[in-house]
Amino acid sequence: MNRVEDQSFLTLHYRLSSIDGDDYINTFGDKPATLSMGAGELSQALESRLIGLVEGSHTVIELPEGEAFGPHNPDLVQWVARSLIDQLGGAEQTYSVGDVVQFPAPQDGPNMAGTLIAVEAQGQSLQFDFNHPLAGRAVRFEVKLIGVL
Q1: Mean pLDDT, the chain, integer
Q2: What is the mean pLDDT of residues 13-21?
Q3: How many whole angstroms separate alpha carbon 62 and alpha carbon 68?
Q4: Rounded distance, CA 92 to CA 144, Å?
Q5: 84-129 pLDDT, tens per residue?
Q6: Spatial contact of 76 and 136, defined as CB atoms under 8 Å apart
Q7: What phi, psi does 107 have (nearest 5°)?
Q8: Can you name the residues that pair with 77 across neighbouring β-strands?
């Protein structure tokens, strides 16, 4: 049986949920996922839990608050002027609390995503949380390894 190593290619079903069982991602009812270890497709904390697992295994791993996606950083909650969003191409766009909005990163870095969490009374500023949506949360990670290459 093949074991997961730090550069393995995996075919798997996985479920990422809250400790209470609310699903965030669940592939068990659909096609399995494929991913390359070390490519950043899963958080480093989740990948580290896969190392050493044997092809065909089915396991559930619970990670405490902040371990899977880091702690929630209050400095990543920021107000953004609506005029800036309009300049970035969203002038006709309407936004609602809970929407995820892509922002270009400074200096040609990767784009950043922020979740809209509040709108200022006149709509001139929008508050975004640029943390990972699961930052600071405890999670349950269920995995069924179908193939390991």
Answers
A1: 93
A2: 94
A3: 9
A4: 44
A5: 988 887 678 888 999 999 888 777 778 889 999 999 988 899 999 9
A6: no
A7: 55, 45
A8: 129
The token pair that represents 46 in the structure block = 């989740």
**Which residues fall within 8 angstroms of residue 2, CB to CB, at 6 or more apart?**
8, 54, 55, 147, 148, 149
Single-letter residue type at 15: R
DSSP 41: S
Residue 67, CA atoms < 13 Å, CB-side half-sphere? 15
Decide if 95 contacts 84 (C-beta within 8 A).
no
Residue 70 Ramachandran class (φ > 0 left, ψ -120 to 50 alpha, else beta):
left
Question: CA 143 to CA 58: how far, in whole Å?
Answer: 6
Strand pairing partners for 109? none
> Structure tokens of 118?
């509040």
Instruction: Name the residue with higher pLDDT: 106 or 26.
Output: 26
Beta carbons of 127 and 79 less than 8 angstroms apart: yes
pLDDT at 65 over 90: yes
Give me the pLDDT at residue 48, please: 96
